[in-house]
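Before surveying the methods themselves, it helps to consider a single example record, giving the amino acid sequence and backbone structure tokens:
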Amino acid sequence: MVILIGGASHTGKTLIAQKLLERYKFPYLSLDHLKMGLIRGRDNCSFTVNDSDELIAEELWPIVKGIIMTVIENQQNLIIEGSCLLPQNILELHSYYLKDIIYFYIIFSDKYIKENFESEIIAHRCEIENRKYNEDRTIEQFILEHKNLKSLCKINKATYFEINSNYESEIEQIYSWLDNRVRKLI
């Protein structure tokens, strides 16, 4: 079984993946690590850290797709999380693989971003990872990223959870939803 966690940056994907590792004992792969490995490990990497999630996804998806297929064929379990997991890419997988995949996205509502940008979103961006850069995106850019991802989820009929007011309690709904899906696949 493969669990895919997508969402815009700073939504808690890595934190959720870590908690799922502890809960289900499934290893997880952060696509940020894969991205940075390729950037640092190749002299001719076709993208940079400043490129859009869409451009990076275009380059990473064939690798990620191969990993997903191999994990399912080998009857193993893996959690993959990253902002460059796009809903339209997941639907490229054959139904043979899709039946063993649980995927969802985490999105912040406009209201949540406006009310919690500095105090919650930026303040907790290093909850799992010690990010050594300052956030240079504006609140308007964050809002646009989340709106765009929500639109992609709707178009591609992907499950998404929109955080509106209380992050912790709304994230608990994701864990309940996941527990039900995992039980069905085990």
